[in-house]
Amino acid sequence: MLKTYDELRKIDVSQYCEYRKEGEGKNEKKIPYLNWAKCIELLHENGAEEVFFEPIPQEGGTSLIKSDCVFADTSGKTNRVYETRIKITIDNWKFEFQGPVMNGANPVKDNSMSQQRLWNCQCRLFVKAVAIYTGLGFDLWLKAEEQERSQQKESDFEHDIRKVKDRVYETITAIQKKSNDMTMDQIAEKLNRSKEELQSYLAMYNTLYAFEHNLICILKKLDDNK
Q1: Contact 22, 105 (CB under 8 A)
Q2: Rounded CA gap, 226 and 213, in Å?
Q3: Among candidates 53, 59, 129, which has minimal Cα distance to 98?
């Protein structure tokens, strides 16, 4: 008989984890994960007699669920909301679990969708469902969710207009270094703009920041008056 939720949650699964790499260079991180086969093995070691999962076919026989709405990123690559659904059996306990097809913390784009990514997602869903329903590996998922929220906050911060301004100035500095001190006049000329136009574009970042700040102040006052 499978151990209780509390008993399974106390098992330290970190000693059985493998690691996958996310990001590149200084942003590279090693993310721990529990392999689906090891997860099944641990369930058997802790009382389960029968454990397996299977993809649930959709229309057309595939186990990939996709929305009709198509999105495009700034480079023109398209993406949909892709999900998949699996059926899990643990002894007499049978349940279904559905989730998005992801590449780590990122959605899978149309041009990178594959059977391997779909299978990886189904394995991940199985391990996550086991953690939620049985407690095995639950604390590992808590850490993973917190890390993904932190990554999302970092991504949102990149949209701060001041960060955009910093990146623009960093690009200009990089151009000047690689070109042996190209002047702002020369950069403007390569952009088919005058120096005055280039300076006005750069000044817009401060204007837009002040504009956004004033809008936020108005919103805050409205909230305070409720």
Answers
A1: yes
A2: 20
A3: 129
Instruction: Please give the Cα distance from 91 to 2 (Å, whole number).
Output: 9
Exposure on the CB side of residue 95, measured as CA atoms within 13 A:
11
- pLDDT at position 17, please? 93
Residue 83 in tokens: 């999900």
DSSP character for 49? S
At residue 26, the pLDDT reads 64
- Is residue 134 within 8 A of residue 2, CB to CB? The reply is yes
Q: How far apart are CA 143 and CA 29, in angstroms?
A: 14
Q: How far, in Å, CA of 72 to CA of 78, rounded?
A: 4
| Whether the Cβ atoms of residue 7 and residue 101 lie closer than 8 Å to each other | no
- Please name the residues in contact with 29: beta carbons below 8 A apart, sequence gap of 6 or more: 21, 22, 23
Yes or no: say if 84 and 98 are a contact pair by the CB < 8 Å rule: yes
Kind of pairing, strands 29-33 and 18-22? antiparallel
What integer pLDDT is reported at residue 49 of this predicted model? 97
Positions in the chain short of pLDDT 50: none
